[in-house]
Every structure is written in C-alpha cells, then in structure tokens.
Amino acid sequence: MIQTTLDKIIDSLTSVANAHRGDPNAAEISLKIGRVSECGIDDSVGKVRPKGLILGAGRVCRPAAEFLTSYQNIDQVHVVVASLYQKDAEETVDGIKNATAAQLDVSDTESLSNLVSQVDVVVSLLPASFHAAIARVCIELKKHSVTASYVDDSMSKLEQAAQGAGVTILCEMGLDPGIDHMLSMKMIDEAHAQNGKIKAFTSFCGGLPSPAAANNPLAYKFSWSPAGAIRAGRNPAVYKFLGEIINVDGSKLYESAKRLKLPELPAFALEHLPNRNSLMYGDLYGISKEASTVYRSTLRYEGFSEIMAILAKVGFFDAEDHPLLQETNRPTYRIFLNELLNVNNVSTSNTKVNGEETGGHDDELISRLMMLGHCKEKELAVKILKTIKFLGLHEETEIPKDCSSAFSVICQRMEQRMAYGHNEQDMVLLHHEVEVEYPDGRPTEKHQATLLEFGKTENGRSTTAMALTVGVPAAIGALLLLQNKVQRKGVIRPLQPEIYIPALEILEASGIKLIERVET
C-alpha cells in the first residue's frame, strides 16, 4: 500500500519534472531509483543495487532501516546497520529483508572508511559528537550522508570541503530538528508565493507519554537517562515577541512555562517552555525582518514545569559533589532529603489514615517547603510532597555509592520510577502557527499545521513515536540522496523545496500524517 502511494507521488513529481514532454528532442527524467536520468531506461540489469549504511543500533535505527528496505523497486535498497556491538546490530535488523548487521568501531578510521567505501549513502544515528569525524570520511570518499542532529561548529567547518568534493551532508533531518524545518518552510514559502508577509511564527514540539501512560505526578516519562532532559530544562532561551527580544535565564526556564490549549485537541492540557535560541530560526527561515514574533518551544503536560522548578529550588538539580554523599557510611534518601530541607530528624514517623500515611514527617516536609519559600500555597506543597514520595526520595534505603551529587540522586530515582512500563506508549506532538498578512486588504490569516503520532506495537515489537518521527525522515533524506534529487552540496538543512516537498509527501504516504488548516 505504501509503495503504491509512493509510486504515485514519484510519478506525479516525474510528470512535473517532464513539463517538456511534448518536445520529442527532450530527454525524459525519471525519479525512480535504479534508472538513469536520460531516456527513462532501466539499467538495473547487471547493476549492483544501491546500498545504505546506518551507523548506530538505537531505537531510531530500526524505523530507518525498515523504511529504506521497504521501498520495493527493481533496484531494492540494501541496508547495512553497523554498531559497536554486533548483537545490537543483529537485533536491529532482525526480520528486516535486505538488511544485514556489521560490527564497527567508528573511532577506527580505517574500518569506517572500508565500510563507507562499499555503500552509496551513510545515515549517522550516533550521538552528535561522532558526526563530524564520520562526515570527514564521507567527504574523502565522496559519499553523501544524513544526520538527525543539529549543525554544530564542527559540522559547519566542513562546508567548504563538502562543496569541493561535490558531497551533500544533509543534517537536521529528524523530527525537531527536521520535520519542524520542512513544515515551517512549506508554510512560509506558500505564504510568500501569495505575496503574504509573515507576521508571527510560533512552534510547539514535544515528546510526551501518551495520555494513558502519563500516570505519575509529573505526567512525564523517560525512555533513556533523564540527565540530558533535565539539563535541557536549565538552558537559557531567547525569542522575539511582538518586536521585543525576551531573554530567559536558564535557572528561570521552568518558571517561564505557559499554558497551551489547542482547539483541535481539547483533551490535552499542555504547557510550553521557550526552546533555546529562537532568533536564529528567523534568520534560517528568512523571516527575521518581517516577523515581529519568532518563538520555538518545548511541550509538556500542564504542571510539569511547576514541579520541576520547585525540585530545582530544593537543590535536587545541583551537580556539585555533596559532602553528605562523600562519606563512607551512606545516607538514606530520607536523611538526604532532610538535609536539603533542613528538616529536624525528630519528626520522622507518620500515621495511617484510610490506608494513606499522614502527619509526622509529611507535615514537617510541607512546613519546610513553605517556610523556605519554595511553595507559597499548601496545595502546591502537597503536590510536591506527592512527587517526592512517588520518586522514593523519602525512603529509608541507602543511596547508591555512585550517586555523589543531588543531581545524580534525582536522576537515579527518575530513571527507576519514571521509565515506560510494558506496552506503554509515547506520543509526539508538533504544532506550528504562522500568521500571514497581505498587502491587498485581505484579512490576516493564521496558518496551522499539526502532527500527532503515537508509539506502536506490531508483531510483539514496540516502536516509539519519537523513534518513528526521527528515523523515517532520516531515511527519506537518504532515499532522496540515492535518487540524486538533492542538487545542493555542502553541509545543509532540509530548508529547500527540492527536499521538503517530496520528503513531506513521502512522510505522509508512510503513515505520518500532517493536518493543515487556515483561519481568518
């Protein structure tokens, strides 16, 4: 079904490319893999089929491999998944036709070069710190590559070398960044094509538990170590709102969260926090001079940021070694909590009322949260207490020896208590709003686009929404490079129509739906 739809899309794009079809002297262009660009001749006979190399074997890799190998054509794409551990690569390709596993240490440049030399395109789904070294090998061997990570300084420095080698290094081809870029540029370019001027650009994106899985006080869960997510919540942010530049200190980021209600999704109680530097996107999208508002944000369920802000005030996000955690005799979680809140250890016992503990230590914690100014209202202090108890930060068990700071303590507890359970699914929500004004007296329009995707379980195997919405766009980028449909060389983002038009079409054909609407 997907293949039939993809063929229709590509045939449609082919017909557009062959607008000269009435001219008998003009060569016909085919957009299908395994066909030469002249005369539409299929040269797949006797030709080695295209090969893609996926570096990494994490959650994102399998959806990427499945997509690339599911493109049934005369020339099927063969995918090699390479990982430091052979077993991980084998598990990733298990059950995927036309995919094989390989063991590779990417720090071994000779082995990396040998494998890259045997393929046509490379998709790096490793941590961002590896991308530049991999890109250098791709440039040297004149192989195109794709990543889902942000363009950092180490990648930007490869621009000239990539252009000189005639190589495309397609970066930021995931969800955020990735789908958000492509959807933004589609909306902006369409508005500009109608002589519209962008008045405001706002973007909201987040990976969340599905509503059924948002069953803890924070309404949030982690599919890997929470340390990175917590650190991200401490980053400073800057954006433009109604012509004013707004700076948010990292220590105040959680406190800057605002509620969000989407009329099309009334069941979702959400909030948004500014996401780092929004101003650079005004430049990237070419709207910095015309848009009075440029704002990108991270989505969470309502109430998350309020709790996280208070946990930060208590001191749980302090990364410095704590003296109490350096002692040979390990403290319990309760003793450490009492230390952070200056609680008198005399009041340590609770009584049970209707099966729930109350009084004693609980009352002391609530009192300290309010006395220290962390909570102004008792209702909020009770909510924080529930979070503390859910995380087990009040328990009379020893803190592990590898926890040396308050930050490591709460990360360890969150990783244990806020992991996804069996058959629990995540959710990805992306929502763009672009306000467009016109010079001819037409009313201002609000263009909106929404992506809502849930994790899936098929044949006993679960795929997260995040893995799907990062892995599939990266694979689509590789597909377009295999088709030679990306003419730009160098280190690029998916901001041009030659990338975002077919990519968004194929994305929707693969089942990842984007809903667009216009309000006046």
Automatic annotation (TrEMBL):
<dbReference type="InterPro" id="IPR051168">
    <property type="entry name" value="AASS"/>
</dbReference>
<dbReference type="InterPro" id="IPR032095">
    <property type="entry name" value="Sacchrp_dh-like_C"/>
</dbReference>
<keyword id="KW-0521">NADP</keyword>
<dbReference type="Pfam" id="PF16653">
    <property type="entry name" value="Sacchrp_dh_C"/>
</dbReference>
<dbReference type="Pfam" id="PF03435">
    <property type="entry name" value="Sacchrp_dh_NADP"/>
</dbReference>
<dbReference type="GO" id="GO:0016491">
    <property type="term" value="F:oxidoreductase activity"/>
</dbReference>
<feature type="domain" description="Saccharopine dehydrogenase-like C-terminal">
    <location>
        <begin position="174"/>
        <end position="512"/>
    </location>
</feature>
<protein>
    <submittedName>
        <fullName>Saccharopin dehydrogenase-like protein</fullName>
    </submittedName>
</protein>
<feature type="domain" description="Saccharopine dehydrogenase NADP binding">
    <location>
        <begin position="53"/>
        <end position="170"/>
    </location>
</feature>
<dbReference type="InterPro" id="IPR005097">
    <property type="entry name" value="Sacchrp_dh_NADP-bd"/>
</dbReference>
<dbReference type="GO" id="GO:0006553">
    <property type="term" value="P:lysine metabolic process"/>
</dbReference>
<dbReference type="InterPro" id="IPR036291">
    <property type="entry name" value="NAD(P)-bd_dom_sf"/>
</dbReference>
<keyword id="KW-0560">Oxidoreductase</keyword>
